[in-house]
Amino acid sequence: MTMRKRFSGLLALAVMITSCASESAPMPSVESLCVMQEGSDGERAVQRTLRSDRFGTTFYVTTEELVQRLGEYLRRMRGGTVNTCDYAPRPEQGSKGVGVRFSWTPLGDLDWGRVPPEEVTRYDVNGVHVESIHWLAKLAVACRLPGELAEASRKAMFQVELSNLLNSERRDDPEAEKQQIELLYILAGRAADALGCEGGPLKGDPVVKPLPAA
Question: What is the pTM of this model?
Answer without folding.
Answer: 0.84
